Amino acid sequence: MAAIRIDAHQHYWSLAHEDYGWLEDTPALHAIYRDFAPADLAPLLRRARIDGTVLVQAAPSEAETWRLLALAGQSGSRVRAVVGWTDLAAPDASQRIRRLAAEPLFKGLRPMLQDIADPDWILGAQLQPAIHTMTELDLCLDLLIKPHQLDAALAFALRHPALRMVIDHAAKPDIAGRAFEPWAARMARFAAETRACCKLSGLATEAGPGWSADTLRPYVDHLLHHFGPSRLLWGSDWPVLNLAADYPEWQTVCDELLEALSPTERAQVWGENAARFYGLNP
Asked: What's the 3-state SS for 119-174?
């Protein structure tokens, strides 16, 4: 039986909904300033032989999460899990989380930490009821962070060892600026001191024009060394990926970057880890 292949990070959005404040029709974002729906991704998944995806929020809006759950439930959808959003600091956050968790495909939450000015926001006491509920329900937390937020995220992870966490896009290292440190040391410590996983996604977008496998290799090798192939989850970050590459190109580059792994280890990164982390049904 072939190993399962999961895209652990992809998005859908529609411009008709006004909750995507970050998405503007600027030259930098023009390639993704349009609607993206399951019909756009389906042929790419077939070509890449992807069995299922993890659909991740892209707006700080619970309304978007309910829209994503509706899309995921459509006949023929390859979505195996939805990672949504709710206001973790709201007084009724626990009740909101429980309502979302009643949906079978709802597997976790992602606060958009990269857009919050205070790196220590995640450590606030007001979040504790929501975090307790997530832990009780065995939900996952996606950490959308940048390198300067790694220390606070690590402190949070150490406070909540029972909460399953994954770092999105390897914490977005500044590859274009050739900034390896202090990102590398902080990621090594995160890997050593927690059980958190890390997504092998989003790196092409951080690499700037003219990137190649060699551009990304020091960063990917560092992740492999410290997290190991059993804690890395491959994802496309489509359609944000379209700012830097296309789906087949990203898949080909990752094949090259992971070629030194054994077949068993590659199978872990390409899908088995995501299936285990998000608790996907076979």
From this structure: HHHHHCHHHHHHHHHHHHCCCEEEECCCHHHHHHHHHHHHHCCCCEEEEHHHHCCC
